[in-house]
TrEMBL record:
GO cellular component assignments: plasma membrane
TM region positions: none
Occurrences of domain Protein kinase (ranges): 1-237
Cellular localisation: Cell membrane
UniProt keywords, alphabetically: Cell membrane, Membrane
Name the record gives this protein: Protein kinase domain-containing protein
Source organism (scientific name): Lithocarpus litseifolius
Gene3D superfamilies recorded: Transferase(Phosphotransferase) domain 1
SUPFAM superfamilies with a match to the protein in the record: Protein kinase-like (PK-like) (SSF56112)
InterPro entries found in the cross-reference section: Kinase-like_dom_sf, Plant_Ser_Thr_Prot_Kinase, Prot_kinase_dom, Ser-Thr/Tyr_kinase_cat_dom
Length: 293
C-alpha cells in the first residue's frame, strides 16, 4: 500500500529467539497527535487539514476488496511531520485485505487495553466487530481535534470521561443553557476566536461525530461520506451553502440520549447502549463479525 499519510517502512529486524523487533521508518516527525491535540500548536485550519487527511487514508484502506480496517484509530499512533501532516505509523490491530480477518483481541481481554475509549462501543457492548468500527475511532479523534481534549491515560475509568458520554453531556448542557440545536457544537472557545472559524462548521462536525458513534453501526456514514462532509465545510471551500446542505443531512435525531444501559456486564454504561434484545440480534445479523471469546 502506498499513501502519503501512511508511514513508509525502510527496513526491519526480527530476532525470533530474543523476541526483539525493530523497524526503521522514513518520517520527519514533529510529535504525536496525542501530544499536540490539546495544545495551541495547531490552529483551526491545521486541525481540519489533519482530520481530512486521516479520513482520506481510512477511505483509501476501506476501498480495497476485501477492505482493510485499523479498528483502533488513536492520536498516539498518528505522527505529525514538520509540516503538520498526519502519518499513521502503527497498525497492530489491522485486519482484512491480504492480512486476513485477525481476531486477536478477545472480548475477555478488551478491558486491559489502555486506550479503551477509542474502541468501538459496538465491540464493547456485544463483543463483536463492526464493519464500520474505524468510523467510531475517527469520531473520537475528531472530538479531540475540535475540543482540544485528549482522551487517554486513566481518565476513561471515570464514566463521565468516556468520550461519548463527555460529548453528549457537553451537548445537552448547551441545550439546557438556551442554545438551539443548530447552534450547539463542541468547538473549544479558543478555536472559535480564531479568524475564519464559523459556527456552522462546528455544528456540522458535531452532528457528523454523533452519527459516526451511533451504536447501530449500519447507520454510521461510510468514510467516503465523511470525506465528502469534511470537504464541504466552509473551512475548505468558503461556501456556507454547502455547509447548510450538510446540516440538513446530518439530522440531530441520532444524538445520544441520557438513558444509560445496565443490561450487559461490560457495557461501561455507555449512553447509547439502551437497546431492546431484538434490536441487538438484528444488529448482529447485519454487520457483525463475531470473534472467539
Amino acid at each position: 500500500m502506498n499513501h502519503p499519510n501512511l508511514v513508509k517502512l525502510i527496513g526491519y529486524c526480527c530476532e525470533v529467539e530474543d523476541h526483539h523487533l525493530g523497524v526503521v521508518y522514513d518520517l520527519r516527525s514533529k510529535d504525536t497527535l496525542l501530544n499536540l491535540i490539546d495544545k495551541d500548536d495547531l490552529n483551526w485550519n491545521q486541525r481540519m487539514q489533519v482530520a481530512l487527511a486521516i479520513a482520506r487514508v481510512l477511505e483509501y484502506l476501506h476501498c480495497h476488496n476485501p477492505l482493510y480496517q485499523l479498528r483502533f484509530v488513536h492520536p498516539a499512533l498518528i505522527m505529525l511531520d514538520q509540516d503538520s501532516n498526519p502519518v499513521l505509523f502503527d497498525f497492530f490491530m489491522l485486519s482484512g485485505g491480504i492480512v486476513g480477518d485477525k481476531q486477536f483481541v478477545s472480548y475477555r481481554d478488551k478491558s486491559h487495553l489502555c486506550y479503551l475509549p477509542y474502541l468501538d462501543i459496538y465491540f464493547n457492548g456485544l463483543g463483536v466487530w463492526s464493519l464500520r468500527s474505524d468510523q467510531f475511532s475517527f469520531a473520537i479523534v475528531l472530538i479531540g481535534l475540535i475540543s482540544k481534549r485528549a482522551f487517554s491515560g486513566e481518565n476513561w475509568k471515570d464514566e463521565t470521561e468516556q468520550p461519548l458520554i463527555w460529548a453528549s453531556d457537553q451537548y445537552h448542557m448547551k441545550l439546557k443553557s438556551g442554545f438551539q440545536p443548530n447552534d450547539c457544537h463542541l468547538v473549544h472557545e479558543s478555536l472559535k476566536a480564531e479568524p475564519g472559524v464559523h459556527d456552522l462548521d462546528g455544528v456540522a462536525l458535531t452532528k457528523m461525530i454523533f452519527h459516526c458513534m451511533n451504536f447501530h453501526s449500519v447507520k454510521r456514514p461510510t468514510m467516503s461520506q465523511i470525506v465528502q462532509c469534511l470537504q464541504g465545510l466552509h473551512a475548505f471551500n468558503g461556501d456556507f451553502g454547502v455547509v447548510e446542505g450538510l446540516l440538513q443531512g446530518w439530522d440531530s435525531y441520532t444524538l445520544p440520549g441520557k438513558k444509560k444501559c445496565s443490561k450487559w456486564k461490560g457495557c461501561l454504561k455507555i449512553a447509547c447502549l439502551g437497546m431492546k434484545d431484538d434490536e441487538i440480534d438484528q444488529g448482529k445479523k447485519k454487520d457483525a463479525q463475531p470473534i472467539n471469546h
